[in-house]
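Annex B. Sample input.
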Amino acid sequence: MASLLGLLRADLLKTRRTPFLLLHLLAPLLAAAVFLAYYSYSPWSAADKVQAYLQVLGCALPTLIALVCSMTAEQEALAGHFQGMLALPVQRVKVYTSKLLLLLIYGLGAVLLAVVLFGIGFRDVLGEDGLGMAFYWSGAGILFGSNVFLYLLHSFVSLRFGRGPSIGIGIVGSLIAALLLTGLGEGIWVYMPFAWGARLISIWTVHAAGTPLPLAVSRADTGILVCILATLAAAILSCLWFRRWEGRSADA
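Annex B, continued. Sample output.
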């Protein structure tokens, strides 16, 4: 545990002079500010405004996660071609876990900032909220938890194949998430990791607004189960892979 905390502390220090922290601060602030400004004169109902904002976050996260994972991987590639990760005198799994924890900690902070800050502004500045702050805290947890799988996916893709494939997959994932919010997603979204966040937060918003969908219609229970099992499987498989990984070829 001590060595893991030391690795995490070192990884945190590496981000001090990079755009990593700035991205996790500015993106949530900008998103909340832009939507609050638009909603100040939009004729939509309060419930529709909240749902639209959270759906946009859910659709944007696949691309943003791909971006930050590729930034972390490229930092290690440029600083000694991953030797800072592969040559450390500690267990490989701890090195990989430290990188994942760094991404997850920053990701959780960014999602909380984007959702809770919007909730505060929507309630105290626009005076339109009737859902309560507990809704936003829970919503942030749903968005973050349903996207942990994508952090594992993009960490693997970024380390193994490079920045381009990871960002490309992230952009396609965001498009898929938006597409599966329509009727095309009925019945298949539960098996599409890119759609979990946007779909589950939509179901949560409808439930909090007082018109919950039957489980047979929403399939939220199936989606949550598949998300949890897939995330656990991805965590185990990625750790096993990293134990045998010897770095990326110079031309990758």
